[in-house]
Amino acid sequence: MKHYSLILVFLLAVSSSVCFAQTENAEIKEDFKPSSKNQPGKEYPQVNSQGYARFRVEAPAAQSVNVSLGLGGRGGTDLTKNADGLWTGTTAGPMDEGFHYYHLTIDGGTFNDPGAKNYYGSTRWESGIEIPAHDEEFYALKDVPHGHVQQVLFPSPSTNTSRRAFVYTPPGYTQETSKRYPVLYLQHGWGEDETAWSNQGHANLIMDNLIAEGKVDPFIIVMTYGMTNEVKFGGLRDFKIDAFQTVLVDELIPYVDANFRTIADRAHRAMGGLSMGGMETHSITLNKPEVFSKYALLSGGTYNPEELKDSSKPDLIFISAGSKENPERVLNAVSALKEAGYNAVSYVSEGTAHEFQTWRRSLYELAPLLFSK
């Protein structure tokens, strides 16, 4: 069963293409505007109020241009060339709200859209597009006190190098020099890296807004590379958590505790992750229950009472998924955990699949539960 659950997480990650909302005979509104993820001054790609996306690419010598949308780039939108050599096309239906990866396939070659900013996903830098969400205010850039996201390089004897992590410190961290903070270790998914939660997930803005609204007691977030991208499709059965577990538990955590004002004990340390980062969270928290007291799986599998019974009891188990991701599995797992006496919480993101809007919303729901007094 363990292998089955890991494979399910991996399949969700690599097979997730962009989802289109169900519409019947919908007329496309011509109120398209540039995506918020565009390069400065670039008009395309564009999105409209219904969630359709429109692309325009200049490739006069090309024979075919296709836009592949979603993690892994499956499916796509064929573009049509006009007399000026401009290729244009609109998605077949409205896309799910939130962030999506995409790339161009031009005459069989893979390219990024010069109009869009790039984000690391699908084990490469991909173009990104943002479909405005009805609830986007919770991760919007607002006129509130902001924390800092800084890059650190920490020594890793086990891998014979220095490794990178990004650390979010909340507003006031640099002024309140005697205050110490709990820590959430937050992992990205397959094909992504330690930049994902800040760039695609807006984790820092989610925290800034929650803190400004008084909904969260401030804490630190640490994001590092999960050493997952060497895992190829069909090879997950052979994935071993040991190397990354050593990096995280024996190298990164001591570095963070020594260099940041943390409350360095189990009660004030949490681990969570999305997709394959959830799988890593599942394995490490079961292997090292003395290190973390709060667990979070975001579209990243589930726990069951049997595998937890011989471990130190966690203070919180949070499990989430999108409504298009078999949410019954999450709800059933949390129900079983509650019956067994665990403080377990489920969350289902309505109208989303295996994508960042699910995980943004999940972090928004999770954060107030972690270290509240």
From TrEMBL:
The keyword Signal applies. The keyword Signal applies. InterPro entries: AB_hydrolase_fold, Esterase-like, Ig-like_fold, Ig_E-set, Mycobacterial_A85_antigen. Keywords: Signal. SUPFAM superfamilies: alpha/beta-Hydrolases, E set domains. CDD domains: E_set_Esterase_N (cd02858). Residues 1-21 form the signal peptide. This is Enterochelin esterase.
